[in-house]
């Protein structure tokens, strides 16, 4: 068991900042996923925590102990690599027991711990085989078993499922979730796959250009994205984002753009204020009476149980997710309604989420959120 604390960790390669002052507090027993696009610094951050890269600045603490300059073998952390890194000439049993032999444990102790870990991961029938005789999923479990046999304080995983096909990736993902629940250990997991992050993590740290964009539960990042980057990264398809203005009508506020006139759950008065509006595809509901969003169908994607309907709305193309058959036909007009609570607003300059506050409102704004102040 271990608690990891990352304090203002940075890494530069020449004149390029790969990781920029990242601070994270990873609780004992947590499953934290480092998520982000390729090149955002997530693997570099993990390698610094493992001791495989030296940070330019900042600190790494394990249970309050500063391990920033300690060698990897003294950090009580187990790394699982994308390539598995198994020894092809050794059996599964010897691959699993290798870390214990390197630490000069007795043969009896090694055999007992290898058998226990193998049973946990259902590898017992495979102990005499070599890696070449295993499937990709079995090799992944051997790599996990080799990490587990050390009984480390935390597991570090660098895109461990990326070499698996879609079906096997789904099955192995379920195995990892179950393993985390059984062990209660700290998992720090790197991926660019948002499905892995959303299904496995207790919390997600979304990285953008080497910095942390938002940290929170999967639900928090999906339902209340801190910025247009988070809104546009999470979701498949991602949130519809388009320029709009907020204006007053009948004592309330509405968001307006070409083909869009949607209510907001805000009672106030304001002249036109520019915003970036956001609506998730699944929140656009077909409305035969016209609705708040109106446009013309440009494409319909059949996904089996549902359809993605692409709609030209003014100068913007929006995407709606609907159960199949949606009844939408290419070239025909279509309308959607949207719940006011599901319309998101972002600052057009900073991209940060807007929290609407009346001048008399003394409550503190959301952390790290832009503030929309109505024009008097």
What does it look like?
The protein has helices at 42-50, 92-102, 107-120, 136-148, 166-183, 194-200, 218-223, 228-233; strands at 4-13, 16-26, 31-35, 57-62, 65-66, 77-80, 154-158, 186-191, 203-208, 211-216, 240-249, 252-257, 260-263, 273-279, 285-286, 293-302, 306-313, 316-323, 333-337, 344-346, 354-356, 370-372. It has 8 helices and 22 strands. It is elongated and about 80 Å long. The protein is an alpha+beta fold and 376 residues long. It has 2 domains: 4-233, P-loop containing nucleotide triphosphate hydrolases (Rossmann fold, 3-Layer(aba) Sandwich), CATH 3.40.50; 240-372, Beta Barrel (OB fold (Dihydrolipoamide Acetyltransferase, E2P)). The N and C termini lie far apart (55 Å). Helix 2 crosses helix 3 and helix 2 (92-102) runs parallel beside helix 4 (136-148). The protein is 22% helix and 35% strand.
Describe this protein with a few key phrases.
OB fold (Dihydrolipoamide Acetyltransferase, E2P), 22% helix, 6-stranded mixed β-sheet, 8 helices, elongated, 5-stranded antiparallel β-sheet, 35% strand, 376 residues, Rossmann fold, alpha+beta
Number of domains: 2
- Strand count: 22
* Spatial strand order of the main sheet: 6-7-8-3-9-10
**CATH homology superfamily name of the largest domain:** P-loop containing nucleotide triphosphate hydrolases
CATH architecture assignment of the largest domain: 3-Layer(aba) Sandwich
**Any low-confidence stretches, pLDDT <50, length ≥5?**
none
Cα distance spanning the termini: 55 Å
The shape, in one word, is elongated
Q: Beta-strand level of the residues, as a percent range?
A: 25-35%
Task: Decide which structural class fits the backbone.
Answer: alpha+beta
Sketch the topology as an H/E string, one letter per element: EEEHEEEHHHEHEHEEHHEEEEEEEEEEEE
Query: How much helicity do the residues have?
Result: 10-25%
Q: What is the class of the largest domain in the CATH system?
A: Alpha Beta
- The average pLDDT value, as a whole number, equals 88
Q: What profile does the largest beta sheet have?
A: 6 strands, mixed
């Amino acid at each position: 068991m271990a608690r990891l604390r990352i304090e203002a960790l940075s890494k530069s390669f020449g004149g390029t900042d790969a990781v920029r002052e990242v601070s994270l507090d990873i609780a004992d027993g947590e499953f934290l996923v480092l998520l982000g696009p390729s090149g955002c610094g997530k693997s570099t951050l993990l390698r610094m925590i493992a001791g495989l890269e030296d940070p330019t600045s900042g600190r790494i603490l394990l249970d309050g102990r500063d391990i920033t300059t300690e060698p990897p073998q003294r950090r009580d952390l187990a790394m699982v690599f994308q390539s598995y890194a198994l020894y092809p000439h050794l059996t599964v049993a010897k691959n699993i027991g290798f870390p214990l032999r390197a630490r000069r444990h007795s043969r009896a102790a090694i055999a007992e711990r290898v058998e226990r870990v193998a049973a946990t991961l259902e590898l017992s029938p495979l102990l005499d085989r070599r890696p070449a005789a295993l499937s990709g999923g079995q090799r992944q479990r051997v790599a996990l078993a080799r990490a587990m046999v050390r009984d480390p304080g935390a597991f570090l995983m660098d895109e461990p499922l990326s070499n698996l096909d879609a079906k096997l990736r789904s099955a192995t993902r379920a195995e990892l979730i179950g393993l985390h629940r059984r062990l209660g250990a700290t998992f720090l997991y790197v991926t660019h796959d948002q499905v892995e992050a959303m299904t496995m993590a207790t919390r997600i740290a979304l990285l953008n250009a080497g910095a942390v964009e938002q940290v929170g539960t999967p639900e928090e990042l999906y339902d209340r994205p801190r910025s247009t980057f988070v809104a546009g990264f999470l979701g498949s398809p991602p949130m519809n984002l388009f320029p709009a203005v907020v204006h007053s009508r009948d004592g309330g506020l509405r968001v307006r753009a070409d083909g869009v006139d949607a209510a907001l759950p805000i009672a106030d008065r304001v002249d036109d204020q520019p915003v970036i509006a956001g609506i998730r595809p699944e929140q656009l509901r077909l409305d035969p009476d016209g609705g708040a969003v109106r446009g013309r169908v440009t494409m319909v994607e059949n996904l089996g149980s549902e359809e993605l309907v692409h709609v030209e709305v003014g100068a913007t193309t929006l995407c709606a997710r609907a159960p199949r058959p949606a009844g939408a036909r290419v070239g025909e007009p279509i309308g959607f309604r949207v719940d006011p609570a599901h319309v998101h607003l972002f600052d057009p300059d900073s991209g940060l989420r807007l929290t609407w506050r009346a001048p008399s409102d003394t409550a503190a704004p959301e952390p790290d959120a832009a503030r929309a102040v109505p024009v008097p």
